[in-house]
Specification:
Length: 557
């Protein structure tokens, strides 16, 4: 829970009350050799496992035992250590926590909350199983699957989940907006994603909130009932994974109780309580380990750097906690764009080096909008021109790479190539006069060639990416990264307004490269090859055939 919305006086009063009502709980983290979930005689305890009440973090002793104070309401949870796995339920959700909420969730939240848990048990024990965790492994990263209807659960099932059955990834994670406000869809979606067959962690987003909650404290009751704590950590291999909740719900205020959306809005804050927990958590993690942070809201966004709804307001406090760690990476979702940020001293991060923050493409793309393909699924191109999809995290010790994958696309589909002849300029009105794609295709005459640009969208590119093109076997021409709308998305939106969600708008993409086409090409057919190097130094290639025709006009005579 979090009290960060409350005034200092109320906060202190509640904190004092909670402290007075706190109890001490004890238990054992143990190796569950017979996998029955119970601590049986002879089963060994596991030493040096972090146990938390949401603020404090203690470590188990040599026998796996711990003792920690628990306030009136809290979630007691462990940080899974390397070489062990937590039990999972039938939906592959890790079970690493105990919810202590004696009176349960407050009434009037509309969606399922937490049933009263009553008094604390005499002990809270946590089972773990020994597993092999190699230094090299992969994990799946989803962001914003965000089904608004039952049909959109179908889209997630058929567009993304089915192709991942049999994956060699060790676990998966959804970076928030698992839902789209209708929290009754949780069981069905969790059952579908569970078919991938690997442990699946989850991050809280703004669309998991109970919007009838009076304030942030009880906004995530439904999320907690399925997944446990909204912030937590676990180890896998040489990496320490940290999940953060960086949304502060303002409360539904005086809105109509029948309005499930409420009226409070939200801002992006990690909050003092969570930062205190993180400080305590990281004190148990050696400085030479990889720390991988996952959250829903970006630490910063190129879309509107001043917006409190898409930029984490207390990120400098987070940076301070991370100072001195060489191996850091952070991912987020929320904006339905691909973005890369590199934080340095001017941003409040003092190193060493830069802190790489990656905003990931979303499963739902443009919120399941757009023309329907042959399977009956919306094309759902993101508003930055990226096909909807997911990412594959690859870790080798403390090094990592992240691969973008377009849903239903081959792994090497990493860019689009289009051509822009200046007088078209993506006019909405001109769509009626051209067949789909004609305004940006590779056939134009020698007169148009003088005004033609090549436009490349490297879907997961950033400021460290490099893009060039060449005609046949000619010399490569460097392209310039240009903040501009993606021409594919512009045309898709103009032609398919009726099938797009009403809030889907054109925005400048951060990963488009532009160059002028050579104007000395003779009429003929050529191959354009685009060579790109991404943020991780990996090479990508794509080809497009162009046709240059003769002049469209002849002098009279």
């Amino acid at each position: 829970m979090t009290l960060r919305l409350l005034s200092p006086l109320i906060f202190l009063a509640l904190a004092a009350s909670a402290e007075a009502a706190s109890e001490t709980v004890q238990g054992t983290v143990f190796e569950d050799e017979n996998r029955n979930g119970q601590l049986d005689a002879g089963e060994p305890g596991i030493a040096s496992v972090s146990v938390s009440n949401g603020v404090d973090v203690v470590q188990t002793d040599g026998e796996g035992r711990y003792s920690i104070d628990v306030p009136g309401e809290a979630i007691v949870f462990i940080s899974k250590p390397r070489g062990y796995a937590t039990p999972v339920n039938g939906w592959q959700l890790p079970q690493f926590y105990y919810i202590h909420q004696p009176k349960g969730s407050p009434p009037g939240l509309r969606y399922r909350g937490i049933e009263p848990t009553g008094d604390l048990p005499e002990t809270i024990d946590f089972p773990l199983f020994k597993v092999d965790e190699p230094e090299q492994y992969s994990a799946l990263l989803f962001s914003d699957p965000q089904p608004q209807t039952e049909a959109e659960v179908d889209f997630i099932r058929d567009d993304v989940v089915s192709e991942l059955i049999g994956t060699d990834a060790r676990f998966g994670m959804t970076l928030g907006d698992i839902m789209f406000d209708d929290l009754s869809l949780f069981p069905r979606l969790l059952a579908v994603v569970g078919q991938i067959g690997i442990p699946w962690y989850n991050v809280a987003g703004n669309h998991e909130m109970n919007l009838l909650a009076e304030n942030d404290r009880y906004a995530l009751e439904t999320f907690k009932s399925y997944f446990g704590p909204p912030y937590y950590s676990f180890d896998y291999g040489d990496a320490h994974f940290v999940v953060l909740d960086n949304f502060e719900y303002k409360g539904n205020g005086e809105s109509d109780p029948a309005d499930i959306r409420g009226s409070g809005g939200y801002e992006l804050w990690i909050g003092k309580q969570q930062l205190k927990w993180l400080k305590n958590d990281l004190e148990q993690v050696p400085d030479d380990r990889l720390v991988f942070l996952a959250m829903h809201g970006p630490l910063a966004s190129h879309i509107d750097p001043e917006s409190k709804a898409i930029n984490t307001q207390d990120r400098r406090q987070l940076f301070k906690l991370l100072e001195g760690r060489e191996h850091l990476y952070a991912v987020a979702g929320h904006t339905h764009t691909n973005e890369h940020h590199y934080f340095g001293e001017e941003d409040g991060f003092r190193g060493p080096g830069e802190f790489h923050h990656h905003v990931l493409a979303t499963v739902s793309g443009s919120w399941w909008s757009g023309p329907i393909d042959e399977r009956g699924i919306p094309t759902a191109m993101q508003r930055d021109g990226t096909p909807n999809g997911y990412h594959v995290l690859r870790i080798d010790g403390t090094d990592l790479e992240i691969d973008y994958r377009g849903a239903g696309k081959p792994a090497d589909h990493q860019m689009s190539i289009r051509f822009d002849v200046a007088h078209y300029r993506h006019s909405a009105d001109s769509n009626r006069d051209f067949r789909p794609g004609e305004m940006n295709d590779g056939r134009f005459n020698v007169d148009e060639l003088h005004a033609a640009d090549i436009v490349v969208n490297l879907f997961d590119g950033g400021e460290k990416s490099r893009v060039s093109f060449r005609i046949d076997d000619g010399e490569p021409v460097e392209m310039k990264q240009t903040r501009m709308p993606d021409p594919n998305f512009v045309e898709t939106l103009h032609r398919n307004t009726d099938s797009m969600k009403p809030w889907v708008k054109i925005i400048p993409s951060t990963h488009v490269w532009v160059a002028r086409m050579p104007n000395d090409l003779e009429p003929g057919t050529y191959t354009v090859t685009v060579d790109a190097t991404d943020e991780f130094g990996r090479a990508h290639h794509a080809h497009q055939v162009i046709e240059i025709t003769g002049s469209s006009a002849r002098p009279g005579g």
